[in-house]
Amino acid sequence: MDGNVSSLPTAAKSKAGRHRGLLAILLKHRYRYLLIAPGLLYVLLFRYGPMYGIVVAFQDYNGFKGITGSEWVGFKWFLTFFNGPDFWHLMRNTLMISLMKIGFGMAPDIVMAILLNEVRTRWFKRSVQTLTYMPHFLSWIIIYGMVLAFLSTSSGLVNHTLKDWGFDPVPFLTSNDWFRWILVLSDIWKDLGWGAIIYLAAISAIDPQLYEAAVMDGANKARQMWHITLPGIRNIFILMLTLRLGNVLDAGFTQIFAMYNPLVYDSVDIIDTWVYRAGIIENRVGLATAVGLFKSVVGLILVVIANRVAKKFDSQIW
């Protein structure tokens, strides 16, 4: 007992010392903390603050009674969604579109970055970068207008050309066989420049002496790419893959909502579009919130698993 009493002043001094050390760090880097304060405040207010509304997923929410007055129903809405007729259909479409975007969308970014890295004419390289990067800033409404101008059955440039050549028009935008590919290809085109810049920055960080040594050893461009460039951007590739796996249940709501129509619901109706109809149009707020929470939990689990798998097999990749 005496030993515990005698140790209290020492513990108190240690705690006070830690507080002074923390205060000293805050004062030393006060301008940096002031710079990140707006972003941190934004995250707290608009990311973590609204998480209080998650409780609606466990309530029979009534807008007049509010969150505190609505009846608790437990996991009713989760079971309603899981046992509903649309669950497997929505999961299939969501996973199919997301995996197609990941599988077909990551390689073009890497190829574009490698090609741009080999360009030695500065003005041409910057022009290509600008042209491929600009679509990233276009809204999906504008892109849909461009897709409509090219692929519309009645007035699209492609179908006009097919008619002139004696072929029947192809219903690109109303066919379940075509529409998924329209989504995937337009997504690749929109974000090609963005992804290429990220990989190009990673390539520029590779030690040039590695390439010089490879040239002295007689390695051609293909060998340099395989043994130096690709391993050099491995970590960035794993990071991008991990982030995209975390959003595998998103599938691109804004793109699909802007471009789809009832004729292609069978192939492109995803969880987010269903939630929009359930929560906004049909006013089933509890059900929509439950599905959104389900998506977030699955995304978190996938990110954690992908991150652990990447770390475990990092030394075996490439």
From TrEMBL:
CDD domains: TM_PBP2. Keywords: Membrane, Transmembrane, Transmembrane helix, Transport. The chain crosses the membrane at residues 33-55, 95-116, 137-158, 285-306. It is a multi-pass membrane protein. It is found in: Cell membrane; Membrane. Residues 91-306 form the ABC transmembrane type-1 domain. The keyword Transmembrane applies. SUPFAM superfamilies: MetI-like. It comes from the Bacteria. The keyword Magnesium does not apply. Its main location: membrane. PROSITE patterns: ABC_TM1. It holds the Pfam family BPD_transp_1. Belongs to the binding-protein-dependent transport system permease family. This is ABC transporter permease subunit. It comes from Paenibacillus filicis. The lineage of its organism: Bacteria, Bacillati, Bacillota, Bacilli, Bacillales.
